[in-house]
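Sequence and fold
=================
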Amino acid sequence: MSIRKMISLHPDVHGHVNQPLGDAVHHLMYCAKMCLSCADACAAEKMDMRECIRTCMDCADVCEAACRVALRRTGSNEEVIREMLELCARVCDVCAAECEKHDHEHCRLCAQMCRECAEDCRNAAASVTPAMA
């Protein structure tokens, strides 16, 4: 089952899912897990990876929080959803930039996921309007 399907089943959504928001929620879930996995892999590296670990863990937490806020369909709080998505996009950019400094496959994959997530968060933030959220 996809998260988009789950969102569409909410009684207040009536089958209509804001596609950019659904895409962002999907990527937010994966990005959080990729960042946690990268942080763990960084901890096992022989070199000092403290900054990358911290950045990945921060990104994972922000992605989780943004995902939770974006999933809520009861009531409305478009301003908070937009702000969370915009913040998450900036944090993902920072994490991607940090991971791109390292020549590790796990960092490369994490950076790629963060870039995709940031793009989806920006698209979703732009799509959230009082009528669509």
Notes: The chain has a mean pLDDT of 89.
